[in-house]
Amino acid sequence: MRPVTGPARRMRDDAHWPILENRMDEEVFNISLRKFLKMVGVSSQREIEQAVGRALQEGRASGTEHFPATMTLDIPGLKLNVVFDGEIRLQ
């Protein structure tokens, strides 16, 4: 087995990791997680850019605003529901 570094290393340090390691393919998990996060990141950015463009065109934004934003990560099968708060600044 190859050495584990980065985020996967931190997961392995968790007390529950040895139990999980015997029941899942770590490489498949990491690849699917990265694909999901990439899809979310790229798609979210595109949607936000389009929404800002529409707001500017329609006069609902001037280009100097700060918009509070939230992102919810929901994985019912894992009983995970986390809300991330942030801000989108136009200037």
Key features?
22% strand, 49% helix, two-stranded antiparallel sheet
What does this protein structure show overall?
- With 91 residues, the chain is an alpha+beta fold.
- It has one domain (6-89).
- The protein has helices spanning 6-13, 17-21, 26-57; strands spanning 66-75, 80-89.
- It has a two-stranded antiparallel ribbon.
- Strand 1 (66-75) and strand 2 form a beta hairpin.
- The chain is elongated, with a radius of gyration of 19 Å.
- The mean pLDDT is 87.
In short:
This protein has 91 residues and is an alpha+beta fold.
Topology, pairings included?
Blueprint lengths: L5 H8 L3 H5 L4 H32 L8 E10 L4 E10 L2
Antiparallel strand pairs: 1-2
Spell the H/E element sequence: HHHEE
Beta-strand percentage range: 15-25%
E-strand count: 2
Number of helices: 3
